[in-house]
Structure formats: structure tokens, C-alpha cells
Amino acid sequence: MKAEKSPAVYILASGARGTLYIGVTGDLCSRALQHRQGLVPGFAKKYRVKQLVWFEYFGSIQDTIQREK
């Protein structure tokens, strides 16, 4: 199992059959909490995309960005 501060790609949803958001972070727990609290400006906040539905950890940020794309 990887550490919480490993690079990760994640998907958030606004709800069932709602809007999806895909992101990359180095600290998934903190980032998910920021989205839930509405602290991250931009698309996710505008469309109230707050529910973490999927994530995958990687060994390097380059691999994480490639997976996101």
C-alpha cells in the first residue's frame, strides 16, 4: 500500500449521472478534503463536484500525469 502523499490521479463526481472531474495531486487526502469544502476554485467548485469516486496511486508525477491524459 502506498503512502497518502504519493502522486495520484482521481475522479470526482457531482452525483449519480452528474458531472465528472479528473485531477492529479501529490496528497490525495488533503485535495479531496479541499474539494469537499469548496476551497478549490474553478470547474470542480462551479459544478459542485465533491464526491471522490475513483483514484489510483503512482510512483512518479510523470506517470500520474500520463494516466490522467
Main attributes?
alpha+beta, 30% helix, 69 residues, 3 helices, single chain
What would you note in describing this structure?
The chain has 69 residues and is of the alpha+beta class. The chain has one domain. Helices cover 30% and strands 28% of the residues. It contains three helices and three strands; from the N terminus they run ββααβα. The chain has helices spanning 28-36, 43-46, 61-68, and strands at 8-13, 20-25, 51-57. It has a three-stranded antiparallel β-sheet with strand order 2-1-3. The radius of gyration is 12 Å and the shape is globular. The N and C termini lie far apart (24 Å).
Short description:
By secondary structure, the protein is α+β, with helices and mostly antiparallel strands. It has helices at residues 28-36, 43-46, 61-68, and strands at 8-13, 20-25, 51-57.
Topology:
Blueprint: E1 8-13, E2 20-25, H1 28-36, H2 43-46, E3 51-57, H3 61-68
Antiparallel strand pairs: 1-2, 1-3
Q: Main sheet: which strands, in order across?
A: 2-1-3
Extended strand count: 3
Query: Count the helices. How many?
Result: 3
User: Structural class from helices and strands?
Assistant: alpha+beta
Low-confidence stretches: none
Alpha-carbon Rg, integer? 12 Å
Which sequence of SSEs, written as H and E, runs from N to C? EEHHEH
Please give the alpha-carbon distance between the first and last residues: 24 Å
Strand content: 25-35%
Main sheet properties: 3 strands, antiparallel
Shape: globular
Percent helix, as a range, is 25-40%
Averaging pLDDT over every residue, what do you get? 92
Query: How many domains comprise the coordinates?
Result: 1
